[in-house]
Specification:
single chain; alpha/beta; Rossmann fold; 6-stranded parallel beta sheet; 12 helices; 13 strands
């Protein structure tokens, strides 16, 4: 398919390691490139909301020397041009038909671009106030650009703050990559995987506390953590740790249960990837899980910041095999039916065209 339209994708930083929000943008870039659009991705160095002691041009040289102008952890379509720029302005961004950004502070920079850089769309991937700047975040929702949100709970939130209803673009899973290899019934019922993070908002401490207490009651319990962060060095021997694993599909498929104790999410990717891979998902009762996690059907929902609630759900799934298999199979089917990457990419294309 040939398409003469040009799309500028603006990202808030250089992604040298796997990051969910950036991964989503890369996936859409690939899908649009396959449809024939001419895609240029710009990774910004200078941030709207943060001053740096190291000049941007020096950072740019360092990034180039490291060879990360194209991500080393994600395979971009060969037609995509990937650039690192010191800052987002008319001088650094080429003319195009569409400019598509993510992150609240980037929305301000995109809003300041001239019309020749493209019609302006910004993808809101969460209620991004965890680093402060709540007033600035709210004001970004009122900018005269097309806002798109990834989950249903964000629709009402953004509309309440801005007075305008945003477009809805559900996150999706690449089922060619994430799928069932080991049938759920053939997995060790007492095997659990969880994303480890040192960020408080991911709720790792509550998940670990619950896992420690479950181990006392289920001695055969095995746990596999994975992370972009380093091994904290204080984990017991029955918990294995994978730093930047290169085979997430295999990791999900060798575990029966996936635990997500996050305190806030936009639309959480790892639980959905695990669900697509046949895990029974236990996750916190927060907006970022609700699009695909239906309590008692496709997942078990637990109270945020409550290790006892997590512990109870884990024991219920470990000891009730029919419950585990039912959740795993229903979750997998629900994701396949409702959250397909190609369908979401077509929705995004429709927004751009219309």
């Amino acid at each position: 398919m040939t398409n003469s339209k040009k799309i500028n994708i603006i990202l808030p930083f250089v992604a040298t390691k796997p990051i969910g929000g950036v991964k989503i943008m890369y996936q859409y870039a690939n899908e649009l490139a396959c449809k024939g659009y001419k895609i240029t991705i710009y990774h910004a160095i200078k941030k709207f909301e943060k001053k740096s002691f190291v000049p941007s041009y020096i950072k740019k040289v360092i990034y180039k020397l490291r060879g990360v102008e194209k991500p080393v952890w994600f395979n971009l379509h060969p037609s995509i041009v990937s650039k690192i720029v010191t800052e987002i302005n008319d001088g650094n961004i080429d003319d195009a038909d569409i400019v598509f950004s993510t992150w609240w502070s980037v929305a301000y920079l995109v809003n300041g671009l001239s019309a020749s850089k493209g019609r302006k769309f910004n993808l809101i991937q969460g209620y991004e106030i965890w680093k402060g700047n709540k007033d600035l975040v709210h004001s970004s929702y009122r900018l005269e650009i097309h806002h798109i949100v990834i989950s249903k709970y964000l629709i009402s939130l953004i509309e309440k703050i801005s007075g305008r209803k945003p477009l809805y673009l559900p996150n999706a899973i690449d089922f060619e990559k994430f799928h069932i290899v080991v049938p759920p019934q053939e997995r060790n019922r007492a095997s659990i995987c969880m994303l480890y993070s040192s960020d408080i908002i991911k709720g790792t401490s509550f998940g670990l506390k619950a896992l420690m207490e479950v181990k006392e009651l289920v001695p055969e319990l095995v746990v596999e953590l994975f992370s972009i962060f380093r091994d904290p060095g204080n984990l017991p021997a029955w918990i294995s740790f994978r730093h930047k694993p290169n085979d997430l599909v295999g990791l999900y498929n060798r575990n029966a249960i996936f635990l997500s104790p996050s305190l806030t999410e936009g639309w959480a990717l790892p639980p959905a990837e695990a669900m697509a891979s046949g895990c029974a998902v236990i996750c916190t009762d927060i907006g970022g899980h609700h699009d695909y996690a239906i309590d008692g059907q496709t997942a078990l929902l637990v109270k945020p910041e409550d290790h006892n609630s997590i512990k109870s759900a884990l024991l219920k799934v470990i000891t009730n095999n029919s419950l585990r298999l039912g959740i795993a199979n229903k979750g997998n089917a629900y994701l396949n039916e409702n959250f397909n990457l190609k369908r979401s990419a077509s929705m995004l294309e429709d927004y751009f065209e219309k």
